[in-house]
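Database export, one record per block. Field names are fixed; values are copied verbatim from the stored entry.
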Amino acid sequence: MKRTLKFLACAAVVAAVAGTATAAYAVPAKAPHATVAQAGTAQTQAASAAKVRASTPLRPTAKKTAPTPRVVASGEHVTAAPGFELWLTAEGKYWTTPSMPDEPQFRSVVDGNIDRNTPGVSMQAEGDSSHVYLSGLYYGGKGTASSVEVETADGTVHGKLIELPGKPGWGAWYAVADVKPGSGSWDYVSRVTVHDTKGKIYAQLKLR
């Protein structure tokens, strides 16, 4: 399939430095009429305040929870982009692309072509004049899948994960890549990595 791919990227960084004015005030070293009793009272109050501060428990920082796949019902359609939809059944992954919105494609997880006991990732891709529509299966990894990164000729693309209920041991990933003119080729994607909730590699596909 001949594809022309387009990608626009821009970044802007703005920094502002604000000056802070300071002022100093003179304070008498010793009050002229202070008594020993008053000085002792001040010391006692200061010690009590320090003890209260020391005994006040620190509030724990809220712990961020790593994302997990979106759980979908069998046959539930997920729209990744106009014309690009995915859905799962116990047999595997179905999807449509903008060029074939009425002709679903299918990848099986039960026909023996993949070993769901061994970590693995598959990929299917289709492009048009400005995008590449990417999806595939992931399976067999340890822990809980959390995120997917796709390394392309134009940089890293972050996709999403979906799974059926009940921890089936496999799921589907998908992403849409905006690409630059001239980037289109069969080796546009070099690597697909699914990470688990601890940041480790759940499964990976290397294409070059």
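Remark 1: Helices lie at 36-55.
Remark 2: The CA atoms of residues 94 and 106 lie 5 Å apart.
End of record.
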